[in-house]
Amino acid sequence: MTSPYARSIGVVFIAGCSLALHAGKMPAALPLIKAELDLTLSTAGVIVGMHAALSACCALLCGLVVAKLGYARFAIAGVALSGVGSLIGSHSPSLWPLMISRVIEGAGWILAVVSLPALMNSLSREKDRALVMGIWGAFVPVGAGLMLLVSPLLLSIGGWRLSWMLAGGVSLLSAALLFWVCHANKQNLSSLSVLPTETPFVELRRPSVWWLAALFLLYSVQFGSVTVFLPTMLVDLTTVPLSAASYWVALIMLINGIGNLLGGWLVGLGVARGQLIIVVCIVGGILSCLVYAPVEYAAIRIGSALLFSLVTGIIPGTVFATIPVIASSAVSVGLIVAVVLQGIGIGQLIGPVAISAVVDGSNGNWAMGSLFILVTGVAMVATAVGLNSRLRRQIQ
Questions:
Q1: What mean pLDDT do residues 254-268 have?
Q2: How many whole angstroms separate alpha carbon 193 and alpha carbon 213?
């Protein structure tokens, strides 16, 4: 990639990472918020799941609106809106202002996450596109992972409100940089300005789009089931303290970003997308079961989780590298991303709820979670096989 394009793509990626800060700030801060605002555990769970719920309900609708009215303006507005929501949240004196701020954050999240990949796609050269889109897939693990790493320090200095202010400030700065990039690349982004009326119907009739969404739904279920409860498992079943367990989760998130890059790189080398996803689903399914296996050694759980995160990180990188190939035009990329995002939101809601119900139903037996993970893994392999069949027909 030439330097000007690399800088522009880097700014877009940083804007995406700034969005992920708002997900990464929650886990460590939640106990403090719960205590300060006197919240029940279920209410705290609603606050955590706000972004996923909005994605599950509204992503496709937002994608249609954004594609029709313009990606660049909604990318900038979405990143800025998330920043404003976080700053409002940092001054929330009670539950409802905090909930409203999370809705504002979530609305900005959806608008930006639908828009930014289309910008990445249009700013990249054809020969670099698979790698660039693989890089985009890493925005959540990189942004959330970094926030998880610095959260203990921020909480010790200024409490959870400092984390909210920092995340909000970074998002607003990213929005300003994004405005500069969009203004400087008007010509390259001109292909995103016109959406033919029939395009949404063409894209939404493609079976491959829905296979991608189904795969990402199941991936979100599987990944969330591993990462959300790993600290609790380590504390309950081993001698690992909570502070160390939280750092392990941050490392797992960051390693997932490496997997994203690896996925885009492998696709760029010409590795068959569908076959790659099938292999990853099989290996990832085995590793995820080991995380929940009835073993006493923390090293086995942590090592399995690290390998699981690295291997399955190939899935987002491969999926985002595939979207521009199956899209009928550059302006359609955001529509397909919106469908996939809706699947992600549904999966993020299903996974933690389902796995907790299974474990609670077995009197706290974490090993029973491996059965749910196994079923999810089998479903992922079946979905990957179906996706591979569709991709072989569509991509010559």
A1: 93
A2: 25
Average pLDDT over residues 169-191: 88
* C-beta neighbour count of 172 within 10 angstroms: 18
Angle made by CA atoms 349, 307, 294, in degrees to the nearest 5 = 75
d(CA 369, CA 366): 5
Residues, the chain, total? 396
Closest CA to 85 of 67, 107, 104: 104
Roughly what angle, to the nearest 10 degrees, separates helices 369-394 and 314-326?
30
CA distance 277 to 389: 12
Please report, for the chain, the start and end positions of each structural domain, with discontinuous segments joined by +. Answer: 3-394
Residue 388: closest CA among 185, 135, 215: 215
Which residue do the tokens 């995340």 mark?
Answer: 167
Residue 272 burial by Cβ neighbours in a 10 Å radius (0-12, 13-18, 19+) = middle
Among residues 203, 195, 220, which one has the least CA distance to residue 141?
A: 220
Q: What is the pLDDT of residues 264-297, one digit of tens each?
A: 999 989 899 999 999 999 999 999 999 888 877 8
In whole angstroms, give the CA distance from residue 48 to residue 25.
10
Cα–Cα distance for residue pair 49/349, rounded to 1 Å:
7
Asked if the 3-394 domain carries CATH number 3.40.50.10420, the reply is: no
CA distance 102 to 164: 11
Pairwise CA distance, residues 18 & 69, whole Å: 23
Question: CA torsion, points 303, 305, 307, 310, in degrees to nearest 10?
Answer: -140
- Alpha-carbon span 143 to 25, nearest angstrom: 10
Q: What is the pTM of this model?
A: 0.88
- pLDDT at 396 (0 to 100): 47
> 285 with 374: CB under 8 angstroms?
yes
pLDDT reported for residue 201 = 62
pLDDT at 246: 76
DSSP string, 353-364: HHHHHHHHHTTT
